[in-house]
Write a structure and sequence with these properties.
The protein is an alpha/beta fold and about 280 residues long. The protein has 8 helices and 17 strands. α4 packs parallel to α5 and α7 packs parallel to α8. The longest helix is centred in the last third of the chain and has 13 residues.
Length: about 280
């Protein structure tokens, strides 16, 4: 298949047409990728900020159509439209059955970019090719465990659905599952990329009464307002924490750093009310 391969950190990706992908083993599915977003985690691997073995196919915010399934896979069949996830849980371990699939001990290792048994299902001229952030979506096909492919209605556009694979589940999950924003709460979101905008939507779903957003880019603030933000702050013109206190009187209940910068974590702590919560969303 064709795939964009990172052969060395801090070098341009190279499109190769000779990457081999294995047939799905029991418990696995192979998916033809139709769309894949570019996440900051991919950039960090490409730049060498997050060291990784090479050659590697990056990309993990993907969606596509099932091409083939392993012998024991149930609930998925060739032709199904699916959204993919880089951290498919096993569904049976202590953590999974307690509703904590994000810390599944049997999930594939995104630090090694392999399946749990050390294989990848990808090769080139007999040499191993790694699966970036546990997927390898910058190729025509991906191989993943069946729990990593979630069937979606074929009427839902796959270019929209693909962002659920990373940005949406990260941001919405931060609001609903990590912070557990409750109805009527006040929220501050700093950074309005894909994850930040998803936090805004998660806070809106949770019923937050006030959603304050801060980002230096005017267009991003405008999009956030369409997605549910109630107050827009330009951090280059105003002190975010001071503005949060002006708007709430006591500080926000929840502050989110959606960029991954220490300065924003500090700003979040300063913006929170006594007893409030600051969440650093690591990507």
């Amino acid at each position: 298949m064709r795939a964009a391969v990172l052969e060395e950190a801090a070098k341009p990706l190279v499109v190769r047409d000779d990457v081999e992908i294995a047939d799905p083993r029991p418990g696995q599915v192979r998916v033809r990728v139709t769309h894949c977003g570019v996440c900051h985690s991919d950039l960090s691997l490409a730049d060498g900020v997050f060291p990784a073995a090479t050659p590697i196919v990056l990309g993990h915010e993907a969606a596509g159509i099932v091409d083939a399934v392993g012998s024991d896979v149930q609930g998925l069949a060739a032709g199904d439209h699916v959204v993919l996830t880089p951290l498919p849980p096993c569904g049976t371990c202590y953590w999974c059955v307690r509703g904590e699939p994000g810390v599944c001990v049997n999930a594939q290792n995104i630090a090694t970019n392999t399946f749990p048994d050390g294989s990848t299902g990808l090769s080139r001229h007999g040499d191993v090719v790694y699966r970036g952030v546990g997927l390898g979506g910058f190729g025509e096909y991906v191989l993943t465990t069946a729990t990593g492919a979630v069937r979606v209605d074929p009427d839902v556009p796959l270019d929209v659905v693909c962002v659920i694979g990373c940005a949406v589940q990260t941001g919405v999950g931060a609001a609903l599952n990590t912070a557990r924003v409750e109805p009527g709460a006040t929220v501050l979101v700093m950074g309005l990329g894909g994850v930040g905008l998803s936090i805004v939507q998660g806070a809106r779903v949770a019923g937050a009464s006030r959603i304050i957003v801060a980002d230096p880019v005017v267009a991003r603030r405008a999009v956030a307002q369409r997605f549910g933000a109630t107050d827009l702050v330009d951090p280059t013109a105003e002190d975010v924490a001071s503005r949060a206190f002006e708007l709430t009187g006591i500080g926000v209940d929840y502050a989110f750093d959606a960029v991954g910068r220490a300065a924003l974590v500090q700003a979040g702590l300063a913006a929170c009310r006594n007893g409030g919560t600051t969440v650093a969303v690591v990507r």
